Amino acid sequence: MATQINPCSSSSTTFSPSSLNQKTFSSAKFFNFSRKSSPSRWVFKIHSRISPKNQFELKSSNGYPLNAISLHDGAAEKPLAKELVSPPEQSESNLSVTVVGASGDLAKKKIFPALFALFYEDCLPQNFTIFGYARTKMTDEELREMISRTLTCRIDKRENCGDKMEKFLERCFYQSGQYNSEEHFAELDLKLKQKEGGKVSNRLFYLSIPPDIFVDVARCASERASSKNGWTRVIVEKPFGRDSESSGELTRSLKKYLAEDQIFRIDHYLGKELVENLSVLRFSNLVFEPLWSRNYIRNVQFIFSEDFGTEGRGGYFDNYGIIRDIMQNHLLQILALFAMETPVTLDAEDVRNEKVKVLRSMRRLQLEDVIVGQYKGHSKGAKTYAGYTDDPTVPNDSLTPTFAAAALFIDNARWDGVPFLMKAGKALNTRRAEIRVQFRHVPGNLYKRNFGMDLDKATNELVLRVQPDEAIYLKINNKIPGLGMRFDRSDLNLLYSTRYPKEIPDAYERLLLDAIEGERRLFIRSDELDAAWAIFTPLLKELEAKKISPELYPYGSRGPVGAHYLAAKYDVRWGDLAGDD
Ligand SMILES: NC(=O)C1=CN([C@@H]2O[C@H](COP(=O)(O)OP(=O)(O)OC[C@H]3O[C@@H](n4cnc5c(N)ncnc54)[C@H](OP(=O)(O)O)[C@@H]3O)[C@@H](O)[C@H]2O)C=CC1
Ligand SMILES: O=C1O[C@H](COP(=O)(O)O)[C@@H](O)[C@H](O)[C@H]1O
């Protein structure tokens, strides 16, 4: 039976040494890591053994307490002399999280619930304050009322959830203001100071707002509401620009007010459980890593589909399209993690260095390696589904793709010639996100004749189902028990809901906790972003310049047939459409 770990409450922090890397474990045997000051600052005390009371805490996604101070941290550049000499007790510091755009969809749907879940799991420091900031006029009470509608006691419906919720809401406050008003951010600063009560203040701003106001907010927050004695970090939501130029411009503008290491560019797919597990699967199981190359892998597929359209977000979406919305970030980030070389350590910079190398080894995407689609209205029985251009916020003649499939290549020794296929679409027949690895044929297969003519169907396929119903399964050929020699295609199946019955935390919980802890591994560094845009920008420009018409597909279908032709060009069949998926 798997041990359930509450990563934050010390009472339940029991785990096996195998969950730590070697380097950490050997030090962990001798040190007691305790959290004594601001979240990213740790104090190490020498202990000869780990007593139950002194079990070290497992908090950030790195799986072990972070090093004392990140040398790259904005706050670390200007540390308080006092802090370095004698770190203050935790009770002397305060964390404040300001959700900018608090009245919006993402804040209500994801950010406040994630903060509550962290509070519930004792992952937030003892002294914390949450502020909502937006233009909408609201009282603290109204904010609490709004938030409370989306908070759930999702964690096993444990006792005291109602009490916890009340305690959480008591720490939530609201400040109304314009996004470009330094004066309004100064008012926020005053309120933050009141709540901090003279303690060391660590401030996290979450920019859950449209991208055209990111820079205004970064300016106002950094000039008028940044911490004077602790750290200040800013989580920036996507999209990070529309192409290489606008992304570069956004980075340059943000850097006028923030250091790179204060900027946490979030890609919530990196916080998903199965995506986190990708590296564990690959680097800690001998059976996978030796196969992880062109020698054994025929192709890799990254598939994203949603069974709903752009409902409510058509205005935003039409300016971006599915390639920018999903492929250039979520799917490409997973690809980079999948294909990178072994990082030197699990430290953020080592992992991100390897990801950048992969991205920089990738060929720029060519128009002939892409097909685009757009969903049209469709009636099924009595029900009618509106097409993309039926959305009043979308122009009738919009050519924006709501579906795309692409073949990408990594020109390095490990992956030379292996097609990495991506497929992403809205308003399809199903909601799913998965990684499919199709292996090569078995050379000189003794049982070749048992498979009929289609040997492709008999190759192994490893599937990581990111959502829904998280699972890892490997398709193998197996003898059907009994006399004779009949074969079956079976799955070795690790279904998470059976193996790990506890509910899986939402991606935003992991990422918020990491930002609080100063763990940057799951956030996008600016050079990663540049490399990612370099792959897609020429293609995006060409699609727009040539006004390429998307292939129409009915709402709720499997998408345009062009995706099959594209895959066939590289001798690939989409694994999700194989009929035995
Ligand atoms: N919603 C989602 O599922 C996802 C969203 N994102 C990204 O997260 C960010 C926030 O998303 P979401 O909550 O959906 O966005 P919203 O459109 O809901 O905007 C958030 C808030 O920003 C303010 N706002 C909206 N439009 C403008 C404008 N034109 N000028 C100034 N302020 C405006 C509004 O607050 P007020 O009027 O009160 O000031 C609004 O409540 C965006 O960058 C989005 O791309 C990323 C992934 C998923
Ligand atoms: O970033 C985005 O992601 C969502 C899908 O996220 P998921 O976690 O629900 O799979 C997508 O709907 C949205 O268009 C996009 O901006």
Q: What structural keywords apply?
A:
alpha/beta; single chain; 9-stranded mixed β-sheet; 7-stranded mixed β-sheet; binds the ligand O=C1O[C@H](COP(=O)(O)O)[C@@H](O)[C@H](O)[C@H]1O; 17 helices; 20 strands; binds NADPH dihydro-nicotinamide-adenine-dinucleotide phosphate; 31% helix; 581 residues
Structural notes for this entry:
- The chain has 581 residues and is α/β, with parallel strands linked by helices.
- The chain contains 17 helices and 20 strands.
- The strands form 4 sheets. It has a 9-stranded mixed sheet with strand order 18-17-16-15-9-14-13-10-20, with helices on both faces.
- α9 links the parallel β7 (232-236) and β8 (263-266).
- α4 (105-120) crosses α15 (507-517) and α9 runs antiparallel to α16.
- The longest helix has 20 residues, at 526-545.
- The chain starts with 21 loop residues before the first helix and ends in a 12-residue tail after the last helix.
- It binds NADPH dihydro-nicotinamide-adenine-dinucleotide phosphate and the ligand O=C1O[C@H](COP(=O)(O)O)[C@@H](O)[C@H](O)[C@H]1O.
- The site of ligand LXAUTJHC has 4 residues, from loops.
